[in-house]
Amino acid sequence: MPNIMIIDDDQSIGDMLAKVLGDEGYTISRAYSGTEAVMLLSQNKPDLILLDLMLPGISGEEVLKKIKDIPVIVVSAKADTADKVELLLSGAADYITKPFDIQELLARITVQLRRRNESDEISITAGELTLMCDTMTVLTGKGEVRLTRTECAILKLLMQNSHTAVGKSTILEKISYDTPDCTERSLKQHISNIRHKLQAISGKDHIEAVYGIGFRLKT
Predict the structure, then answer these.
(1) Which is nearest to 35 in space by CA: 51, 58, 12, 52?
(2) Helix, strand counts (H, E) of the chain
(3) Does the global pTM surpass 0.70?
(4) Fold held by 123-217
(5) What integer pLDDT is reported at residue 174 of this predicted model?
(6) Strand pairing category for 129-132 and 3-7
């Protein structure tokens, strides 16, 4: 199970989080100061971090700057929008204000771990198509196709479900975290753009509409 590091000097909050997350099946590591957190992170890499800001020693803001490639959910009593924006721009994956609803926090943790697992998949292959997720390009036997972020998210989902029709609502739900600009109205245009780009290089139509359901990748 994923390991979650709780960085919080409040013993009662840390104990509560450790128990709830342990009951959910997560393994837990804890740090009670910013200095301790930096030391532990130099030795082990958790899958996700819950970070308080008001820490003894090194502040939570400074700890955040030292964290690379680990999703961080800031858990803080600071509720000012400017603080939230600054932290998100500084690398935090999410922000939840104390006091918080534990079910909401669990949902946010689930989302971040899912997104991390998906981003770990650098490439995916279906038939003659290989999608390079990091560069948002598709390699075919006849050349390379560049996609937009939304097109990449859509094609990745279709390739993960090759030969299976994927519903329109399912596509919109699955890609909403990374591409909130995609709507039911624009989805058809994005699909059309992908089809034309692939067809221009490979000479084949790789996506078909399934009446009453959605779209399917043909390999």
Answers:
(1) 58
(2) 8, 12
(3) no
(4) Arc Repressor Mutant, subunit A (1.10.10)
(5) 80
(6) unpaired
